[in-house]
Task: structure prediction
Amino acid sequence: MDTAPQLKALLTSRPNSLQNIHDRILCIEYDKERQECLRSLQYDDTRYDKISEEHHGSLEWLWKHPQYLQWSASATSSLLYIEGKPGSGKSTLAKYLVKNLVQVPNASSSTVAQYFYTFRGTKLESTHENMLRSILHSILEQDESAFFHFQQEFRKFHHRNLSKWPYDSLKIALSSFAKHPSSKPLCLILDAMDESEEHDRRSIIQLLCNLCSEENPCSIKIFLASRPVPELKHHIQEHPLVITLQDVNKHDISRFAVCFLEKEIKLTGKILGEAADYIIGNADGVFVWVGLVKTELLRLVETGCTDAEILHCLKDLPPDLEEFYTLMFARLEKGHQRDIRVGKKLFRFVMFARRPLTVIELRHALAIPDDHIPYEEFQQSIIRDTRRRIEYCGGNFLEIKADETVQFMHQTAREFLIRTIPDASKFQFEITDKADRTITTTLVRYLTLCFTSPRMQDGFSKITSWSPEDFRAYAEYLNEWPLIEYAFRYIKDHHD
Result:
């Protein structure tokens, strides 16, 4: 900081001016420390933008539900628990609430922070540490005065020159909000507690319940969505506000089913009504099952089936999500060997990569065979239409998101594959057998091709004195290898 102007002011100013300057200096130093604290709370967050949007007109029941009304209108701290089956739409509901908080009483004057746990993102996104960093960063970014709650713990580790916050300090910082009055209410929206790491889950749930104690001098509202998990069921008993999602989403499923049957499958009249009734009656609150039914019916439409044939095939589809996945997997097992080879590699990378990979990254990963090949053969092995290949060889288990990353279409699909194919000798899709070793081999071969290509050997390797243009050309060359950043960053993780 340049002290010359302040020194001049100190020599020429009156006492009141001196006090103003002193206050300004303190304010600048306070904000500087707050900004340092914000930078120390960096976190991973890839989940929110990948959550499916609600179907038009769905979820509006939330604003009139008695449990929600009691939670939102309460002047004291409270917790609303959204319990739901796998695939019943919990994450979509949580995202819907985040987007529509203007309808929550006093929301405009509240500090709002959200976190969506996931096993399908980076390796950090299922951890409680990442959740705490995200929540605390969001609070501090919105409310400068909240730094009071952080300052003591931040200084403890900052002055010891530690590289990151100790986990216990993060818990203490969040817990401190319950102990001090605040003019701004705090609203926390947490999704998929069932996808969080089991380590310390019980303690985190207890922390959240303590934050919602009616005896606290501040107002803290928590919206928590999850499948039933033992730790949550035990602690949630003290907080009676619970909405069971599959008990209230029948109308949403009906709206969604009728819409796609009418507009995309083009059914009309009696068959439309019969098909809609069948889907609504068998969905049992599970949106994911309805989505799979839609995909199957669209396939039938593409083959030119009659309306009667579509209805007949609809009733032949498995009425259970697990059975549906079994059908999808059986189809993959019966595929051509070249498709199975691609599918195995796809599933392996999507399931075990340390972060979600993009279509273009997978395009190069799929071009690396199980044995060494020369550069020319690698170029010839690159898939022309990677998106179509992923959709075909993934057998509806995979989906491509708006940001071009590839992930399992739902966490239940990932869980099904982990349960179904642990035995490499039983199935052709032995993706879990030595997965990290196989990925490591692929990455090593990829790097070898990158640094032994003709352009590298005949060009860059012969440069003795590098000019700025050489460095620029080298950077552009490396950018032609989309998987290289992932390989450099994570090859050690897979090898270890």
